[in-house]
Amino acid sequence: MRIVSLLLALAMVVPAADIYYLLWFDTEDWVEPRSDDAAMRIALDLEKMGVRATFKVVGEKARVLEQRGRADVIRALSRHDIGYHAENHSIPPPPAMYMKHLGMLEGAQEFERREGQGVRDIERIFGVTPSCYGQPGSSWGPQSTIALRNLGVPMYVDEGTQVGFENQPFWFGGILHVFKLERFNMRAELEDESKIALATAKFDAAVTELEKRGGGAIHTYYHPTEFIATEFWDAVNYSHGRYTPPAEARSPNLRTKESSERAHRILLKFMEHVKSKPGVRIVTARQLMQIYASPVAPVDRVAARAQLRRSIDSMGPHSAADLLLAVLGMTPRYVDGPTQRKASQLAGSSIARELFERGKRDAIGYIDRHKRLPSHVWFGSQFLSLADLAATAAHDDGASAQVAVKRGELAFERRVASDPRAAFSWAIHPETFEAPELLELGRLQAWTLKPARLR
Predict the structure, then answer these.
(1) What is each CA distance from 216 to 18, 206, 222, 249, 438, in whole angstroms?
(2) Are 225 and 38 in contact (CB under 8 A)?
(3) Which residues contact 150 (CB under 8 A, 6 or more apart)?
(4) Average model confidence (pLDDT) for the chain?
(5) Is the bond preceding residue 224 a cis peptide, omega within 30 degrees?
């Protein structure tokens, strides 16, 4: 009887869910020297706790640390993980402004031109290629993903509203994103120690929810300057698109000593709770990249056809682009989304079999050559949009003399923000700034969007 009870108990055991916690710091204030000491103190305090964080460093901040002779700060941060947080952060124009009027490919080239030096300086000063990138404020643009791949930066770590997938990490533009975690993005407020209990309760609730989901990620972010200042350094100098010469930049108002000490205590108390939580593993961005599975995986062609017949959307761990490649008979690989949107220009409701097969071969040739999806596919002197091609190919039986043309519904576009002003609201952007062009490019690249799966 005892053996039977033991076997029943073992059968009821559910494997522990994998919960990963990422702590990161936007290390950006190159104006106020005391922010250097704040960053170093945070790095050393966390190291004593046995906690490694990710410090996303602005290129100008890294250079200023070098110019100030702060090898001690550089060493302290280097014992954690180093990411990248833009070339100069807030000196206009920030990324969304300079990419707004550029297409996907030209915008990627411009991002690389403007931001590449910062990545190279991080590599030179800290001795590592940044593990990740995150935009300054809400200054986001999908063109950055192509440039980041070229620069060898494999992850996007930040918080924003432009694109997301069920408040968990996802693949987009060939880059692993820890972005738009929303309720799984949390922090203890630095102004009131009595509210730590609220923060820890919120953290515990997030852990419980992810355990029910079977695992996932939580993140927290701060800025070292928050621990020494009562306002942000860039809002003082660059608010609403205003330009201040760097040599004339003014320091932010500073905290009192007691206020600063309180902020450090709150951080450490919150981290003590996170560290003590069973089943939670604290990781850096670099480690997280190894925890999530490869984005390229075999696709069941029958299931892919069925999904694209219903709607053009991701399916399990596969993006709409993955499904389309499978329906076209191509081997699994990563490809970018199209660079523009085209409406079908094809008279009639069907395409002759020989012409349809010729058009499919043309689409495959385009994808092989350009490593991205075409915006439209030619069938003789007329063409179908990419969405209509996907739907038509998914419905095709492969044998009929005439292939019925179907219209495709791009269901994945619901995961991209629709408000072009709210998505880019930031104190450094001009007050009326909006970027519908960037959201449209984001919708085009959402062909590549899919959830990240733990290994």
Answers:
(1) 6, 10, 21, 41, 29
(2) yes
(3) 108, 112
(4) 95
(5) no
Mean pLDDT of 122-142: 98
Q: What is the pLDDT of residues 291-326, one digit of tens each?
A: 999 999 999 999 999 999 999 999 999 999 999 999
Enumerate helices (H) and strands (E) in the chain, giving the number of each.
Answer: 16, 13
Please give the helix or strand (H or E) that residue 353 lies within, else none.
helix 353-370
Q: How confident is the model at residue 16 (pLDDT cuts 50, 70, 90)?
A: low
- CB neighbour list of residue 168: distance below 8 Å, 6 or more residues apart: 181, 184, 216, 217, 451, 452
Domains of the chain (ranges, CATH numbers): 18-291 (3.20.20.370), 301-333+345-406 (no CATH)
pTM for the predicted model, two decimal places? 0.95
Per DSSP, helices labelled H in 280-352 are 285-291, 301-310, 320-327
Burial of 421-449, coded b for 16+ CB within 10 Å and e otherwise, reads eebbebebbeeebbbebbbbbbbbbbbbb
Q: Give the tokens for residue 104.
A: 């996907």
List the Cα angle 341/344/345 in 5-degree steps: 125
Token pair listed for 238: 């660059």
SS3 295: coil
**Which residue type is seen at 361?**
R
Q: Count other Cβ atoms within 10 Å, centred on residue 402.
A: 13
The separation between the first and the last C-alpha atoms of the chain, rounded to the nearest angstrom, is 38
Per-residue CA distances from 263 to 30, 53, 62, 147, 224 (Å):
20, 17, 24, 36, 10
28-75 per-position pLDDT tens digit: 999 999 999 999 999 999 999 999 999 999 999 999 999 999 999 999
Residues forming beta bridges with residue 176, ordered by sequence position:
155, 171
Do 424 and 96 form a contact (C-beta atoms < 8 A)?
yes
- Calculated CA dihedral for residues 94, 100, 106, 111, nearest 10 degrees: 20
Distance of alpha carbon 287 from the chain centroid: 16
Contact 251, 233 (CB under 8 A): yes
**Which residue is associated with the tokens 């994103």?**
177
How far is the C-alpha of 312 from the C-alpha of 263, rounded, in Å?
Answer: 47
| Distance, CA of 245 to CA of 371 (rounded, Å) | 42
Model confidence pLDDT, tens digit, residues 204-229:
999 999 999 999 999 999 999 999 99
- Asked if 19 and 280 count as a contact pair (C-beta separation under 8 A), the reply is yes
State mean pLDDT over 243-271: 97
DSSP 192: -
Distance CA 303, CA 384 (A): 23
pLDDT bracket for residue 8 (50, 70, 90): very low
Main-chain dihedrals φ then ψ at residue 153, nearest 5 degrees: -100, 110
